[in-house]
Design a protein that fits this description.
- With 139 residues, the chain is of the alpha+beta class.
- The protein contains three helices and six strands, in the order αββββαββα.
- The protein has helices at residues 2-8, 84-93, 133-138; strands at residues 25-31, 36-38, 46-58, 70-81, 99-112, 118-131.
- It has a five-stranded mixed barrel with strand order 1-3-4-6-5.
- GO terms for molecular function: single-stranded DNA binding.
Length: 139
């Protein structure tokens, strides 16, 4: 099937060979803050919120024992929602503490902070958000 897609996108110009690539992210975690909607002049609005994912492991991993201290690492992610329908749903229904699944792609960019220092930012551009059933019980 991949070969068929390659052949379908083949061109006679050798400098313009199109090839498929994948930039896909899935995050399952908890929302860190209520979403905000921002609009930069001349652009469509965007809904932004943070999300935490956790990793847990036991010290002495690789040893045939279940004893040892459990260590947890929390990673924070910046989620941006540009799709008009999804952007509005996220703004209205995503709440701090909600457990959600976000599907999207990684985006790397730069911005100038308030001190005019160039900073790098990694953002997840959401294509889909799944609200887990435990959130529905709370409402």
């Amino acid at each position: 099937q991949i070969f068929k897609q390659f052949v379908r996108h083949r061109t006679t110009d050798t400098s313009l060979i199109l090839e498929r690539s994948i930039n896909k992210v899935q995050l399952l975690g908890r929302v860190g803050q209520d979403p905000v909607m921002r609009q930069v002049e001349g652009r469509n609005p965007v809904t932004i919120f943070s999300m935490a994912t956790n990793e847990m492991w036991r010290s002495g991993e690789g040893e045939p024992t279940t004893t040892g201290d459990v260590t947890q690492k929390t990673t924070w992610h910046r989620i941006s929602v540009f799709k008009p329908g999804l952007r509005d749903v996220a703004y209205q229904y995503v709440k701090k503490g909600s457990r959600i699944l976000v599907e999207g792609k990684l985006d790397y960019g730069e911005y100038m902070d308030k001190n005019n220092v160039r900073r790098q930012a990694t953002t997840i551009i959401a294509d889909n958000i799944v609200f887990l059933s435990e959130n529905l019980r709370d409402q």
